[in-house]
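S.,

Sequence below, as promised.
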Amino acid sequence: MTTSGDTPAGTAGAVLVVDDDVTVRDVVRRYLELAGYTVALAGTGQEALRAHEQRPADLVVLDLMLPDLDGLEVCRRIRGAPEAADVPVVMLTALGEEENRIAGLQLGADDYVTKPFSPRELALRVTSVLRRTGPVADARVVTDGPLTLNPAARTATADGAGLALTTREFDLLWFFLTHPGTAFTRDELLERVWGWDFGDRSTVTVHVRRLREKIERVPAEPARITTVWGVGYRYDAGSAEYRTGPGS
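The prediction came back faster than expected:
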């Protein structure tokens, strides 16, 4: 593992870039440093895990194809550590790796960029993901029956117990809770939640499935996040106690 030390430390956050191609690592590092990030580099999955353990990153850019542990296993292990369960992950995938890409999203990856990619686009995606993990302008605490989300603290609870949500899962649930009863297409959710003008609609499908597994009494028969056939999804408030209040 190498850490870029030839430029001043960034101010936008720390990013760990994991890719076995030294050229890709170097190009991505340069663009991220220009954007103000401190960048650490790893060429294998084991190096990535050691680097993240020694100095936890604010975000991980992770290639799926690595020479030892594959990116899915690295993502799984990072997500398995309680202190790192909500660290955003942006995956790098080859054009034909749709199955692996969906598997990565199911493990909790927040975004992905398909190779070959524009380093500038990747830097913008990193900034977009990290921006959503910071303070929010709308700090209302939202409650719907047993569900409570506090966007200022980035915490979510169900029946008083904490919910382990990734950055995108939290954003998607927050959006649903603050727009109950309105049906949204997958494209609209990509734009409103992910900030994408275009993208793979399966990203939304996977995140909705993961949310249902965490908030629905019977995920296979969802009562909150319902499918609107031919349109997309709608959040149905599960209790007359649905309300919004000031954040604390």
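Confidence is low (pLDDT under 50) at residues 1-10, 239-248.

Coffee later?
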